[in-house]
Amino acid sequence: MPLTEKVLTETRMPTSNNEENAPDRISRLPDGLLRFVMLYLTAQEAVQTCVLSRRWQNVWSSTKWLKADAAKFSSMKSFKKFVDNLLLYRKPVPLDALWILATCNRSDDSLDYSDIHPWIRHALRSNAWALGIMEHCGTNLLSIDGYPFPFTSVYLSILHVCHFIIDDSFVKNLSSCCPVLEDLELKNCAIIVTMFSSTTLKNLLINSTETTEHFPPKFEHLMIDMPNLVTLHLDEIPNRNIQLVDVSSVKKATFYFFELSFQNSAVDCNIIPALSNVTSLELVSPTAYEDVVPNVLIRSFPRCKTFSNLKYLKLGEWFLRDGCYPLLFLLRCSPNIEKLHLQLNKYGSDDYEDYPDAAAAIDPTRRETEEMFNCVKLRKITIFYPQGDERVHIIVRILIANISPLPAIKIKPIPV
């Protein structure tokens, strides 16, 4: 079987040996343009270009950017066969990036780590600087137990993995085996780390699997020590009390909290005080009427310094507590803020209607009024709210009573 037919199997495009008498203009394109075109194609599409003309027959085999998407295949078995052949028959040239999307809508099957391991090894042996297992279906998490640590490379600077088990051994090896790693994304992973340190990382995104059986069995601290980090995004990490050791270089920070973000209201949290140098800060939680998250964050306020660099602030429901005290406190500490984004949601709206003391928690008439303060550079306030949410009127009243000069306020309903 010809090489192209082996790789083209299951790509739903037949090979062709027909020669046309028409001028072959596509073959006259310069090499640089051909390589540029390949950057915008998936691995399947790149292989399929071999039928375009004689010159294109083997162009795919030297492409340096590969993105393989299982959604294009009828089964995981055929996808695995395609990727195996793709890497087997490509030319022995350096590889820039390999991205794997291992979700097949037409198949209940999924890949094990044993299937993916050879692909990772091929990419890193080919000096890839970017590697991603972007999607993975199935109930079983990917575990590297029993294998030598796969992510070992002096070239790898970008690593995105999905549905992996991430423990202390994983991150320790990552720090020592990837000396130039700058960008790390851990999506839908089991986060059982207690210490995460790196002197090279500049961008870190972590979110946890939604499957409760993969949550850590008990609460422990998660220490993050990354002095050169610029962007930090942590999304609903369960049973980990986050402690930021050195994140002094972070400019953009995003945190999504939920009921398992802290063990209890007495947890000593330094998230907000540790982020005094940020220019963009997002702190989101699903409801103001769940005690743990608001109480833990508010208890850290006395340690906060002035947020002199903060330009953009986004707050979720927790800002409503105690007459919007968190909102007003952070605005007072942010003399150069330019944009404020307040996010209400359906959960909080329902709680407001159901809880008997909900109104007292945010009504400013029930607490002593403080003096107005200046937000000279604040140009825009946007409030997103579920239609019918009565709290938006209270929030606007609080803003009018406390901020001078008052900027433009846009109120935007969101679908319920």
Note the main attributes of this structure.
416 residues, alpha/beta, 14-stranded parallel sheet, 3-stranded parallel sheet, elongated, F-box domain-containing protein, F-box_SCFL_complex_component
What report would you give on this structure?
This protein is an alpha/beta fold and 416 residues long. The chain has a domain at 256-415. The chain is 25% helix and 24% strand. The protein has helices at 3-8, 31-38, 43-48, 76-89, 113-125, 168-177, 292-299, 321-332, 346-354, 358-362, 391-402, and strands spanning 65-69, 97-102, 130-136, 158-162, 165-166, 183-191, 195-197, 203-208, 220-225, 231-235, 240-246, 252-256, 280-284, 312-315, 339-343, 373-374, 380-386, 403-404, 408-414. The strands form 3 sheets. Strands 1, 2, 3, 4, 5, 6, 8, 10, 12, 13, 14, 15, 17 and 19 form a 14-stranded parallel beta sheet that branches. Strand 1, helix 4 (76-89) and strand 2 (97-102) form a beta-alpha-beta unit. Helix 4 runs parallel beside helix 5. The longest helix is centred in the first third of the chain and has 14 residues, at 76-89. It is elongated, with a radius of gyration of 26 Å. The model has no long low-confidence stretch (mean pLDDT 87).
